[in-house]
Amino acid sequence: MQRQRPQPQRLLRHRLLGLRREFLALHLALIAAEQKTYEHIHGRIGSTELLLELMLKDPWFTWLHPVSDILVRIDHLLNDEAFDITDENVDHLFDEARLLLHPSIEGDGFERAYYEALNRAPEVVLAHFHVTRVLLAEAA
User: Fold this and answer.
1) Would residue 4 count as lying in a domain?
2) In a domain, 75, yes or no
3) Calpha distance 71→3 (Å, rounded)
4) What is the pLDDT of residue 2?
5) CA torsion sign, 16 to 19 to 25 to 29?
6) CA dihedral angle for residue 126, residue 132, residue 75, residue 9, rounded to 10 degrees
7) How many domains does the chain have?
8) How confident is the model at residue 108, as a pLDDT?
9) What is the pLDDT of residues 45-89, one digit of tens each?
10) Report field, pTM of the whole predicted structure over 0.85
11) Position 3 in a domain
């Protein structure tokens, strides 16, 4: 029989899972939008393995790394029994997500690239809306 987690721990996991679900959808929408633009300029990316390699190493995709980083840290917290899911950990991840997702035409790096992705890809706008809704619900 599996030991049941205390209620606060379950609620914290639920919060994290909600953020993860919407953040992952945003990440996938951003990858698809960047892939489409990249392929329009450079030609078709031949395989998933090549896309993954480009995402890791090509400057075209490096601006997506902060989104990937937050997802990795959420997964680490959810799946590594060595770490307790605490209010502080969860709040910190939500704060980081809020700070990151500020598109700006005048910004540098992520802010500018995010602004451009939002302006060219409706699926990114929709995913941004869903993440923002989760973040605002948490702030209320």
Assistant:
1) no
2) yes
3) 27
4) 54
5) negative
6) -130
7) 1
8) 87
9) 999 999 999 999 999 999 999 999 999 999 999 998 877 888 899
10) yes
11) no
